[in-house]
Amino acid sequence: MKIKKVLYRNGVFLAWSEGDIQTQWGIVKGEDIEKAETIVKGHTGKEFRVFPANFNDNFDCFKKDAQSMVKKDIAYIMINSSLGKESTVLEAGTGSGFLTAYLARYVKKVTTYDLEQSRTNLAKKNTEGAELNNIEFKEGNIYDGIEEKELDAVILDLPEPFRVVEHAFKALKQGGYLTIYVPQMTQIIDFVKEAEKLFFVEKVIELNERNWNVSGNIARPRSPDVTHTAFLVFARKI
Fold it and tell me: What is the pTM of this model?
């Protein structure tokens, strides 16, 4: 379901699409939220800031089935794979559709593969809420081959990405990117050995994000905070 507005109070964001919301500060009537532009009051008189929901708000409400990519990694993938509004992209390992949604928002077309029907169904439901219509969902094993050709990028979130190197080389345009997202360095070692036969491996990185709490004159890192998520490799077709 698409989120229409978000309410904010004391560091807590509440998503709203319809009906009343019950909070620790009281009940907020749906009809009041519908009419509100900047402030809405609950039945106890407590005030909430109101914002029109944007893409990120809807994204944050996606349901998660397995470990999913976070925004910092998604943004880095899109920038370093040189993606734009005319790009055609193949993704394998749809998962909950987190990367799928952001890709579809910025590129021309996304084709995404997954073996599990349950994950595909969840990703479809998530992306439907974000009103995206340039995604093709496919069930299939990309280790067996890639039907699509002249792709700008192939992005893999799979246990054995080294098995896709040759298939990706045949499917990509000259200069196109094969990008992988993996949790283990051993996976990178296997992938790079295979990729260097056909690709120029541009970079192998991890991104660490550290959030801070700022209140008055006090600023300190938020604790506990998970900074590492996965490793990224960018390989360009020679």
Answer: 0.85
